[in-house]
Design a protein that fits this description.
The protein has 1167 residues and is mainly beta. It contains 10 helices and 85 strands.
Length: 1167
């Protein structure tokens, strides 16, 4: 089942580039709810005039039911006597006029209803409308006015110049808004604002005959002023100001007295601005006159703003002759931006983007014919749609601790996250989390305990809309949390003990207090003799008595006098034993035991369970069962062991320990915990039901906890648990082929959790964590989570977005490496010669994408697509029918990794071999992975060459090898106990590889073949299918060649060459090597070769099928074999089955081909 799943995943990866091609077409699709394109052509835009309206729009949804009404909101116009007889409706796939359904005042069978009211025309489908009445994506055309059949009334334009709108809606599901400018005879009001830019768009004429007379030139652009001056070759010419977009200038006969090019510019003295230049060409005389050629400007009509959104619009117009397209636009009639298209067309359309929502824009359109004759429209306006207000809701403070809190809220659309906070309503501090999300969570840290904080939240979306909440408050809790326990080491000397300790990680740590006792450990920071208090890391306890054991406890405390449960250690000072004659009489009273009262040293309850003199049978064989509960992430995440009973925890993190003691039938007296050789006292809760304490986990590796609880009756309970340090994740930039991995900071990592079969963004708020998070300067990120199924998504501008595999977290830490790929600039072809820009970057990008697909255990989403990779992927898919997918992926990984290693290797490189455990033949394209033993992460990957070779260069450490090749099993079962297999030494079976220093890894790895016995019919069927696949692949090359003949372009030529290359590559990969010389299967009577005979070779020792062949027209077969004993069988329809004698190749010195001839006896048929 697992292999089927793996094969399914690999098959899905092969479709990645094809999906990229499909996704690249997505921008061409319109939204299903947008009736686009939409337009309203009116016969006049003059204010107060009556006009006919021709309304046209496309319906992606179609009309499927009597309730699919269409509404045309024309409430800005005066309807007067307009009625249903003044309206016609049409629809169709091309012009929209193909169908003209019956209509009247009310709907009926096969009759549309047309009603009017409150400035809205409502079109109701027939009462018998069914799906497809108006097919999806048809054009709908509505005539309103006298051009409708029987129409006698028209709509009247608004009385004053303005911009009005046609709003299309209704129950049919599509919407659109069309801006309709209303003007007063085309007059333009010019503002006396100094423009910030000066643009010269065109000149008319731009070509004249040499030797002509004086003439008037028209110059069109933006930013012209009353004092603007036209210059010819830098010299001023008499200039007349027409508008901010048009000037005229007198060109003298002397200016065109000779053939050549004159440079025209415009100078604005106010603001000292000089425009760009346009060329006036003076040519040899073609016809008389200074201007020469066509001097009539195009006529502009039907200027409209359509497809208006919050940030974009489309400007359309018509001209009576082919002309180019230019739109100047801005917030006033001093236009500051422009878009253009140099193609000469009759119907013009230009898209404006990057607009501000809910804003009125002015625009004009300009068109010039091929002779330079230019037409300029008046000023029009439209208003972008307003954004729905950004709404903040559900603001709350949660996970409130003594020095931290988490502020969470929601917005109605993705926006950023900012919290302003402080100890008064003036606020003063802030914290933010990058990224646009709808569910916000911002952590606050470094707060003061037991303090009221004021805060408010602010969010702003990508379009600039923002929202600010009211001011809220919360109170931090009193600081009752002690610091994490430190480590304490006591080293005995002569009458002294050297004490060393560490500091906890908490920022409010204030110092360490050390107490000591004899006869047992101190039970609190005020129990026993005072030794030291302060911020040092060591002290020397002097004046001690040799031979006496001293018990020490080190208590870390914070600025609120919260003491940790205590780190424990003991030491016994030792010195030289003095001789009896030397001043011993006066000393015995001071050194004898009376000061150390026997009851104090013999009381069982205070005997420390970790000191050998005090250990008795109960501590080593506990007779009360206890268990410990562990928490991480400041006590918010319950740690859960994996299936092996092992807990996971982050390195250098605080772990809270909770040991319930209620309902045990005994009264607890004290508890001690040992972690990594360091002992800690645990504190009994106020209600006496549990012991608690903390410890700091080590940097890495395995460790265990040993918790002992001593009860008043002398019994002891013990809990021993194993831990493994886990590691957070890292975002890196994927290297090309080889090279160091580069950490990628400032990437946004979002964690997703599977809840009841649905993927949702993990809510880190209850655990005091943010989601998403930003990778640090080392690319690192960390999530401490409840066990479950998760995946992470990493993204950064300029890089591909990468999704990890689904990871079943079993030890509470989500980690792993997320590689991102830098996206190059798109391929562009420039000039008349097809030079492709950014090609090296594209090749690198493509190689990285393929390499990433090979490595990734899940199908990843391709988020970018470019022309060349897409076309090459289609070529690959067109010829891949004859190729086993695993071989292709393995070959690509080999191609992009091993060749460089081969060229750079030293002559004495030690290779490992992957080979068939039975035939001893090398196995090509086996994927060999080097896995770190402790972390189980893949360190390196290699693919074997045709000789089965591979090699790794690895640093010191512990590793495993993992080999994957369809049709083979690892580790070997046939050679499980074999260390030397003939010439193959260092046979590897899956053992741990320990390297003491950097060195190569190249072991010999046998794989067991997995071959099933198939019927001759199935074998013949599979060969027929393979031949058909090969024919299909070859047909792809032929089709590409025919395409090249029909359309001999550079692009088709490259595709054809790629097809040919892929075809021969696939022949190399898809078809197995054929053994030569051949053996022949023939009829024993006629000596004729037998076609379709099934020949099988078996290993003698294990009676294992190794390979199967089907003979062709000449009855030929052949098997590679080496250094083993084999036998073959031959079956053919109508012949007796043949089984050979043993074929002993154990002593062969080189590779052998089993190729002897076999004569089959026909089966005698009796009647």
């Amino acid at each position: 089942m697992l292999k089927k799943l793996q094969n399914r995943v690999l098959a899905s990866k092969a479709m990645i580039l094809f999906l990229a091609f499909v996704l690249s077409c997505a921008p061409l699709l319109t939204l299903a709810a947008s009736a686009s394109p939409a337009s309203d052509q009116i016969t006049t835009h003059t204010a107060g005039a009556a006009a006919n309206h021709t309304i046209k729009f496309k319906t992606p949804s179609g009309i499927d039911a009597p309730t699919d009404t269409i509404t045309l909101d024309l409430s800005s116009f005066t309807f007067g006597a307009l009625n249903s007889g003044d309206v016609d409706i049409f629809y169709g796939p091309v012009t929209g006029l193909e169908n003209s359904p019956a209509h009247g005042a009310v709907p009926g069978i096969n009759t549309w209803g047309i009603a009017m009211g409150a400035g809205v025309i409502t079109l109701t489908p027939p009462t018998n409308a069914v799906p497809g009445t108006v097919p999806a994506n048809d054009l709908i055309v509505v005539y309103v006015g006298t051009h409708a059949a029987g129409g006698i009334n028209r709509l009247t334009n608004p009385a004053a110049p303005t911009a009005v709108y046609l709003n299309i809606g209704g129950n049919f599901g599509d919407t659109a808004s069309v801006a309709i400018p209303i003007v007063a005879n085309g007059n333009v009001t010019v503002n006396a604002t100094v423009p910030s830019s000066l643009i010269l768009t065109s000149i008319n004429p731009n070509t004249v005959d040499v030797g002509g007379a004086n003439f008037i030139m028209t110059l069109v652009g933006a930013g012209f002023m009353a004092d603007s001056v036209v210059r010819l070759d830098g010299g001023d010419r008499v200039t007349t100001f027409v508008s901010s977009t048009q000037l005229t200038a007198t060109i003298l006969a002397a200016d065109i007295a000779s053939v050549g090019t004159r440079v025209m510019t415009v100078w604005n003295p106010t603001g000292a601005l000089l425009s760009n230049s346009r060329n006036l060409t003076v040519q040899t005389t073609v016809s008389g006159g200074g201007g020469g050629g066509d001097t009539t400007a195009p006529i502009i009509s039907n200027v409209q703003a359509i497809n208006i959104t919050q940030t974009s619009a489309r400007i359309i117009w018509d001209t009576d002759e082919p002309a180019d397209s230019l739109t100047n636009y801005g917030l006033t009639v001093i236009y500051t931006d422009s878009v253009s298209n140099g193609s000469f067309v009759l119907s013009h359309g230009l898209d404006l983007s990057g607009l501000t929502p809910d804003t009125v824009y002015h625009f004009q359109v300009i068109s010039s014919d091929p002779f330079g004759n230019t037409a300029v429209s008046g000023d029009y306006t439209f208003k972008t749609l307003a954004l729905d207000p950004l709404v903040i809701s559900n603001v709350t403070s949660t996970s409130i601790q003594d020095t931290s809190a988490l502020i969470v809220w929601d917005t109605n659309r993705p926006a950023d996250s900012l919290v302003q906070y402080g100890t008064s309503a003036l606020l003063g501090s802030w914290n933010s989390v990058a990224g646009f999300v709808s569910n916000h969570a911002v952590p606050l840290s470094g707060l003061q305990p037991n303090t009221i904080y004021y805060y408010r939240v602010i969010s702003q979306d990508g379009l600039g809309a923002s929202a600010t909440s009211s001011i809220y408050t919360f109170r931090t809790s009193s600081d009752l949390t002690p610091p994490t326990n430190i480590t304490l080491t006591a080293t005995a000397g002569d009458t002294v003990v050297l004490l060393n300790w560490t500091h906890p990680p908490e920022p409010d740590f204030a110092g360490v207090k050390i107490m000591r006792r004899t006869g047992g450990y101190p039970v609190g920071p005020n129990d026993g003799d005072f030794v030291y208090q302060g911020l040092l890391l060591s002290t020397l306890d002097v004046g001690l008595t040799n031979g006496v054991t001293y018990y020490y406890a080190a208590y870390a405390y914070d600025t609120n006098n919260n003491f940790a449960s205590g780190a424990l250690d003991n030491a016994t000072p030792q010195g030289t034993i003095q001789l009896p004659p030397t001043s011993t009489p006066p000393l015995p009273p001071a050194t004898t035991t009376p000061p150390v009262v026997p009851p104090t040293t013999t009381t069982p309850p205070v005997v420390p369970p970790i000191t050998p003199p005090a250990t008795t049978t109960p501590p080593t064989i506990p007779d009360i069962s206890i268990h410990a509960i562990y928490y991480a992430a400041n006590g918010t995440v319950l740690l859960q062991p994996d299936e092996n009973g092992q807990y996971g925890v982050l390195g250098n993190s605080s772990v809270l320990v909770y040991v319930p003691t209620a309902n045990l039938g005994a009264t607890p007296q004290f508890a001690v915990m040992t972690v990594g050789g360091h002992s800690y006292s645990l504190t009994l809760s106020a209600d006496g039901t549990a012991y608690t304490g903390t410890f700091l986990s080590p940097d890495s590796g395995l460790f265990n906890t040993d918790i002992r609880v001593t009860f008043v009756d002398g019994r002891v309970g013990a809990a021993l648990d194993d831990f493994e340090v886990q590691y957070g994740g890292q975002v890196v930039e994927e290297p090309l082929i080889i090279g160091p991995v580069t950490a990628l900071p400032e990437a946004t990592v979002t964690l997703y959790q599977n809840i009841n079969g649905e993927w949702v963004v993990w809510n880190g708020a209850p655990y005091g964590q943010s989601n998403p998070v930003i990778s640090d300067e080392n690319g690192g990120f960390t999530f401490v989570v409840p066990n479950g199924l998760y995946y992470a998504q990493a993204e950064k501008p300029g890089y591909t977005s990468q999704r990890t595999a689904n990871i079943n977290v079993r030890q509470n830490v989500f980690g792993g490496r997320i590689p991102l790929i830098k996206v190059p600039e798109p391929l562009t072809v420039t000039g008349t010669f097809p030079f492709v820009e950014n090609l090296p970057e594209q090749v690198e990008y493509t190689a990285q994408i393929i390499r990433q697909a090979i490595r990734d255990p899940q199908m990843v989403e391709a988020i970018e697509s470019y022309a060349a990779p897409t076309l090459l992927s289609i070529s690959l898919l067109n010829t891949a029918a004859a190729l086993p997918l695993f071989n292709l992926l393995s070959y690509l990984q080999f191609f992009f990794t091993q060749p460089i290693l081969l060229f750079g290797r030293q002559k004495k490189k030690r290779w490992g071999l992957v080979y068939n455990s039975l035939t001893k033949q090398p196995i090509e394209f086996a994927v060999v992975r080097l896995i770190h033993f402790e972390s189980h992460l893949i360190v390196q990957t290699r693919v074997t060459d045709k000789y089965g070779r591979y090699v790794f260069q690895a640093k010191a450490g512990n590793y495993l090898l993992e080999i994957n090749k369809p049709g083979y099993q690892f580790p070997t079962q046939y050679l499980i106990d074999v260390k030397t297999d003939g010439e193959f030494v260092d046979v590897y079976h899956g053992e741990m590889i320990a390297l003491k220093e950097q060195s190569p890894i190249g072991l010999n790895v046998p794989l067991d073949p997995v071959v099933t016995v198939e019927t001759p019919r199935k074998i013949i069927y599979k060969k027929t299918v393979r031949n058909a696949q090969h024919s299909l692949s070859l047909a792809g090359v032929i089709v590409a060649f025919l395409a090249l003949i029909i359309s001999p372009t550079w692009l088709i030529a490259m595709i054809f060459l790629a097809q040919v290359g892929f075809y021969f590559l696939f022949r190399r990969l898809a078809l197995p090597a054929k053994a030569r010389p051949w053996g022949k299967i023939y009829n024993s009577s006629t000596k004729q070769p037998i076609k379709g005979a099934v020949v099988r070779i078996f290993d003698k020792k294990f009676n294992k099928l190794l390979e199967t062949m089907l003979t062709g027209e000449r009855g030929r077969y052949g098997f590679f074999a080496d250094k083993n004993t084999f036998y073959i069988t031959v079956e053919a329809e109508g012949y007796e089955k043949y089984t050979s004698k043993d074929i002993d190749l154990v002593r062969t010195k080189k590779e052998t081909v089993v190729d002897f001839d076999v004569a089959l006896k026909p089966i005698n048929k009796t009647t």
